[in-house]
Amino acid sequence: MSICLELENAQVGYTNGFTVSGISFGAKFGTITGIIGPNGSGKSTLFKGICADLPLQQGAILLDNKHLEKLSLLEKAQKMAVVTQFTDKYAISVEEYVMLGRTPYRKPFQMFETATDRHIVEHYMKLTDVFRLRHKQMLQLSGGEQQLASIARALAQEPQLLLLDEPTAHLDISHQVQILDLVQHLSNKLNIAVLLIIHDLNLASEYCDFLVMMNEGCVFVKGSPEEVLNYKNIETVYKTLVVVEPNPLSKKPAVFLVSEKMKRQIDK
Fold it and tell me: How many structural domains does the chain have?
């Protein structure tokens, strides 16, 4: 599998503020890469740098072998799409909302969507199971439905790279699984690279092909879930006692928390 997104010793951040530095990893087509780490470790700053919302200060960020900072806004919008954890609650229908994903492909002075636009939007609404909601207002949807509509809009951009900022935040376990099952299916079916920030280590283990664990503005460790999610790495970075055992079905690492009460019992 070829690399879609590559960071080479990248440093991004705020002027006279927090930066992440020395970041090197690649995200391959058809795979899911997860960025994990405790609060304040630099996940969001790195994500904003990859989205080009923060300037690249050193190193390189390459998207499809092209330097990100040299791409026009239109080229970026055609090559990568972003889904945040907070969906914009516009007073428009789901179909109109998803159609916004076709904006990067509109020609100058084009007032209305084309037949191709309508076909693409319908296709991705069906793939994400929001076609049945197409006439509903975005304001009427549940949190999980809004997230699915946001993913449909992003896919309507036909990107090579899909960026997801905590896509399962604020969702119950059934919607978390539904969203990540969909993302995994789309990554394989459409052969797109997916990069996501995710807090839940067990979800990261189960769904991600490659993990980047951040700590204090740097990459602490990177690799497969089996390489990254061991108790030593987790306890060092998260400062929390855990037990890590293989999931009995998938054999991926499963992380179990140890409460303070249990620690006292163990220490007796």
Answer: 1
* Gap between the Cα atoms of 97 and 152, Å rounded: 9
Buried b (16+ CB within 10 A) or exposed e, 219-229: bbbbeebeebb
Half-sphere exposure of 96 (CA within 13 A, CB side): 11
Which tens digit of pLDDT belongs to each residue from 35-64? 999 999 999 999 999 999 999 999 999 999
Does residue 89 carry a pLDDT above 70? Answer: no
Q: Is the separation of the CB atoms in 13 and 57 below 8 Å? A: yes
pLDDT over 70 (residue 249) = yes
The runs of H, that is alpha helices, within the chain are 43-50, 73-79, 94-99, 115-127, 143-156, 173-190, 201-207, 225-228, 231-238, 260-267
* Region 119-147 average pLDDT: 94
* Residue-number span of the structural domain to which 106 is assigned: 3-226
Query: pTM score, two decimals?
Result: 0.92
CATH number of the CATH domain containing 199: 3.40.50.300
Strand-pair partners of 256: 243
